[in-house]
Specification:
Helices cover about 45% and strands about 15% of the residues. It contains eleven helices and ten strands.
Length: about 350
């Protein structure tokens, strides 16, 4: 039930830090399965990541971390999996909140038939995807009613940070702050997110720009606003915007910069380019500010470790979409044309 909240979406965003905590501790307690998964990923010739929508964005964060460490990783949108063949030395990681997404399940079955080892990360027990997997891991976000994935996404990111850190031999201490980083980001950013959401609710189109590990976060922010506020949005690597997208930017065109604290100098230059075209820029920074010399509004959410930046950026991006939808009077829990679980091809 709504328990006094206006919508499941806001309730579930507020549940996201507890969900991240439960996910990380739950996976650590499930150490036998987690160990099996990490061992298989470590031995893999290639890691294929298969998912759809929001789950795909979580997968891209995992992919970015591993690619930077020199691993061979191929992120694949489930419905496009025909473009990549797998083999016996490959390990496939299927990420799906519901565990029932048809595109992801069909990809899994094809890759299994091609001889690959299958690991899944789902948020429910006894779902189809986990039943076909060699190792099934779980996020522990609890049931998510809102069609827009919020706490399940943040939990997937938490799970994938843990898995990538194990794979890369990193010390896990930084994850102890995961819950705190998400909750304090929520409190710190809610006012600014509401303001951005209200301003953007009157616009036709918005860009989300970032660099590096922030690009999948930009993609997720753009998906959220599209699906629940029905505002056209696109996400780009900031450097790519000058190769075409900037043509649309004119006075007051909204551009949201997502700053994970890396590549700050480059982002500052991209921000200047946008401002010189009189764009309406907003900056959401985790850990390190861009500090533009112009009037642009910037909010800084704290991270105790830069690796937690994607977790810290999730609440403001979800809240922007929530407040834009609210301002437009649309129901954030039941966006038109969408189903919580897409069981058709
Ligand atoms: O259940 P899944 O994670 O497999 O769902 C995949 C997508 O349909 C899903 O993430 C969708 O993009 C979200 N509901 C968007 O908020």
């Amino acid at each position: 039930s709504l328990q006094g909240y206006e919508s499941f979406m806001i309730k579930e965003i507020r549940e996201s830090w507890g969900a991240v905590k439960d996910t990380i501790s739950g996976l650590m307690e499930d150490s036998a399965n987690l160990g099996k998964a990490v061992k298989a990923l470590d031995k893999a010739r290639r890691i294929l990541i298969v998912a759809a929508g929001t789950s795909y964005h979580a997968g891209l964060i995992f992919a970015t971390r591993l690619l930077r460490a020199g691993k061979t990783v191929i992120p694949i949108i489930a419905s496009e999996h025909d473009t990549v063949k797998s083999g016996q030395d490959d390990v496939v990681l299927v990420i799906s909140q519901s565990g029932e997404t048809m595109d992801s399940l069909l990809a899994l079955k094809d890759y299994k038939a091609q001889g690959s080892f299958i690991i899944s990360l789902t948020n429910t027990l006894g779902n189809s995807i986990s039943s076909y997997s060699n190792v099934s891991l779980h996020t522990r976000a609890g049931p998510e009613i809102g069609v827009a994935a919020t706490k399940t996404f943040t939990s997937q990111v938490g799970a994938l940070l843990l898995m990538s850190s194990l794979l890369l031999g990193e010390n896990l201490d930084y994850l102890k702050e995961a819950e705190n980083v998400v909750s304090s980001s929520f409190s710190k950013s809610i006012g600014y997110a509401e303001k951005i959401g209200i301003e953007i609710s009157r616009k036709q189109s918005v860009y989300y720009l970032s660099k590096g590990i922030g690009v999948p976060m930009a993609m997720e922010g753009a998906l959220k606003i599209k699906e629940i506020a029905y505002i056209h949005s696109e996400a780009y690597p900031a450097g790519e915007s000058k190769h075409g997208p900037i043509a649309l930017v004119e006075r007051d065109f909204p551009v949201i910069f997502i700053n994970t604290g890396e590549h700050v100098e480059e982002l500052r230059n991209n921000l200047k380019e946008m401002e010189s075209r009189k764009a309406r820029a907003y900056v959401i920074s985790a850990g390190v500010e861009i500090k533009s010399d112009t009037e642009v509004k910037e909010i800084l959410v704290n991270v105790s470790d830069q690796r937690l930046a994607p977790l810290a950026l999730a609440p403001p991006l979800q809240l922007i979409a929530y407040y834009a939808a609210k301002e437009r009077g649309t129901n954030p829990d039941r966006p038109r044309n969408l189903a919580k679980t897409v069981t058709v091809r």
